[in-house]
Amino acid sequence: MSLIKQLLTMHHNGIGIGIKTIARTLCVSKNIVKSYILKAKDSGIPIENLLKLKDPLLEKVLLAGNPAYKDERYEVLKG
User: Fold this and answer.
1) pTM of the full structure
2) pLDDT of amino acid 63
3) What is the count of structural domains for the chain?
4) DSSP code per residue over the chain
């Protein structure tokens, strides 16, 4: 499971789990946690639906500005 999916799962399912706890558990900064939660909310897609996506598709939705996903070779490799 990707870091993004773990983070969103903990945030969505972990009632009462704070950003600091998620960051500490996953060994990332609080700003990373906040950033991905904000990107998930800004995507307009319910978190339940985001969590159902396969990891590459989830990353593509939340990291749309990443040039690796804009390169047509990615689609061939993703195959």
Assistant:
1) 0.73
2) 79
3) 1
4) --HHHHHHHHHHH-TT--HHHHHHHHT--HHHHHHHHHHHHHTTS-HHHHHHS-HHHHHHHHTTT-GGGTSHHHHHHH-
